[in-house]
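Holo prediction. Input below; ligand is heme C.
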Amino acid sequence: MLSVKKVAQPPFTKSVLILVTALYATATLADISDALQVAQLSDGFNPEQKYMASCFACHSTGAAGAPKVGDGMAVEWEPRLEKGLDAVVANTVNGLNTMPAKGLCFDCTDDDLRAIVQYMIETSQ
Ligand code: HEC
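Structure of the complex:
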């Protein structure tokens, strides 16, 4: 993630920053809040990669009754989301029945897990 705190930046970084700023300026409000959220995640964190590494094994197949992730799987998530995203994220952090705590991603922060859950929900529309 680019840090705006750096003062002396080489020209390349500067032009990347200008590009990023221009992209943000054209983004919708929802995109901006996504971008702000990404800023609180672990360095180099990529929700899709972490999902593939930690969660895919159960959530792609629905093993042990895991809600499935993928095209057209919104129906698996709607009843779970009725309790609110915060509760769903809390269940991810703490575990739920056969769902292991942190989904076995022990280097994930709570914010990282929230980002993965959002990724799972978004890719299940
Ligand atoms: C060993 C298999 C397994 C792995 C690995 C796993 N899950 Fe799950 N997950 C489950 C099962 C089973 C459930 C359903 C639990 C229930 O409702 O009883 C579940 C449920 C969930 C839910 C819904 C919680 C709710 O409140 O209804 C979320 C969100 C979730 N998992 C996220 C993740 C994330 C993120 C990862 C990876 C970091 C992950 N899971 C890894 C098996 C797994």
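Residues 19-23 have pLDDT under 50 and may be disordered. That is the main takeaway for now.
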